[in-house]
Amino acid sequence: CDAHHIRYWRHGGRTDYENLVLLCSRHHHMVHQLDLQLKLLPNGELHVTWPDGHERNSHPRGAPPKPRTRH
Prior knowledge:
Blueprint: E1 2-5, E2 20-23, H1 25-34, E3 37-40, E4 46-49, E5 55-57
Antiparallel strand pairs: 1-2, 3-4, 4-5
């Protein structure tokens, strides 16, 4: 995963949890190449807007499953 600054660091974006989102390398490059706009919503979803106005929200999967214990 890559930590992406939602508000770019060079534009005054801070390096704190409220301004960072974890993206795989492929999607991180896509954000920069396509100039996608990102907004982290209070419920943990990521709102993505393409330059043509198309929008989409991600849906976080939540915590990883707990390992099963053997008895």
